[in-house]
Description:
With 137 residues, this protein is an alpha/beta fold. The protein contains five helices and five strands, in the order βαβαβαβαβα. The longest helix has 13 residues, at 13-25.
Amino acid sequence: xxxxxILIVDDDPDVRLSLQxxxxxxxxxxxxxxxxxxxxxxxxxxxxxxxxxxLGLPAGDGFSVLERLRVSGKLSSIPVIVLSxxxxxxxxxxxxxxxxxxxxxxxxxxxxxxxxHSVGPGRTGPSAGxxxxxxxx
Length: 137
């Protein structure tokens, strides 16, 4: 069975490592990038099945990454979950209009940082209809 590839894009190495460990433990192939430019390069190189994207990035914020994905042929179909410390209320509509499947706020503990849900097989994501089993609707 071919492992699903997930690209984690976050400038915080602790967040990248935490997500990478949790996802790899659930048999996902994990790739990471720490800024906007590197995220597009890694997406082109690996064409992931899912991207987990922070908004506050150096070298191009998350919104510019979403825009570049949307206009890039083969990359436009990559589902994106935004995981950010930015205000969810103030950014929700903008994130969805930019092409993300859902927006989860980073805060407090590990469970909260994963959007309040488990990041493993069979666990569904927030109410926007996207699960980490790649059954995004």
